[in-house]
Fold this protein.
Amino acid sequence: MFRLAYFVSHPIQYQAPLLRSIAADPDISLKVFFYSDFSLQKYQDPGFGRTIKWDIPLTKGYDFQFLDCWGNKQRKNFIQQPISKDIYEQLTKEQFDAVWVHGWSWICSLQTIIIADKLGIPVLIRGDSNILREPKHIGKKLTKKVFLGWLLKKITSFLYTGTYNYKFYKDYGINDEKLFFMPYAVDNDYFCNRTMQARTTREELRQSLNLESGRPIILYAGKLQLEIKRLLDLLAAYRLLSADGLREPEPYLLFVGDGEGRQRLESEAKDTGWGSIRFLGFRNQKELPNFYDLCDVFVLPSAFEQWGLAVNEVMNAGKAVVVSDQVGCAPDLVMESQNGRIFPVGNVYALMNAIQWAIANADRAGEMSLKHIQNWSFKQDIKGLKLALDEIV
């Protein structure tokens, strides 16, 4: 059995089910160390622009401990964040075969990598860095190259999450024998089961939202951030679906979420005079499958997404997906003109055409989505993690 220590910033809603799955594996003894507990309470999420309290268990089903830290619990910048007092103590007290660290943007993560390296404990790293966002300023680019050149030498093996993450490591000179595939996945069983349950009350939800039967539904679910998510592009593309620019399009456009851009979006939507654009506010994790089931096509038009786990989630509902070419999951999850479309970010006409295709091919594309996402699961995550542990321990 492998004794594995996992170090991560805080309990994360996307990671909790994965950690439970790993802890249940008979070949791995897992202990998780968190730097902060802020996500277990109500907290202010700047992206959603509101107080959040997750409605799913974040720490059940696996062994965990909070590190003893100085500093701000909720990381605001590189200076205002936790600094651990007891990583050395934890690693010397328990005989771990390997240490797994999530990313390197937290000081505690850097502390863990450095201390484990000094103690001779093999270090695995998994994060979401990719080739889509590299600094353009020569000074920043050089600083990053020097920093990562120093840091990556201390890593024994790398758990890459997808195509762009793999290419990132290759660009920094990491050899294939150090790279192990551990894909960015969600709890497929949970989302499949929840969306199947949602089908039984789909018409009730449609009626409660006053949506006419038979009209297609376009869905965006996430933070309402105009610059990052490029939601004005989605609104502009939707307006192009109108036959004459005056009459509302046949599909509905639903925005699920909240954030700083909501007021501007609502104002722009009101100017159309249409009743087909709806803002449904923030919905928690247990509610989202109802909206995934309700929609015909899911759109993520972002200027940049490290990955875009909402795409994983909605594919489990068997839906067509449309994403920009700056969404990290695009080359792995979106099969062009099969389960969805990828469009050049900022190209409103291309986005409109992609949405039209997705609506016209919703049933076939949805079947392809559901089939494809089953191969992007926790099962593959655990397989990749075990291969890495076999190699380094």
User: Anything to note?
Assistant: DSSP finds 16 helices and 17 strands in the chain. The domain at 188-373 is CATH 3.40.50.2000 (Rossmann fold). The radius of gyration is 22 Å. The chain has a mean pLDDT of 94.
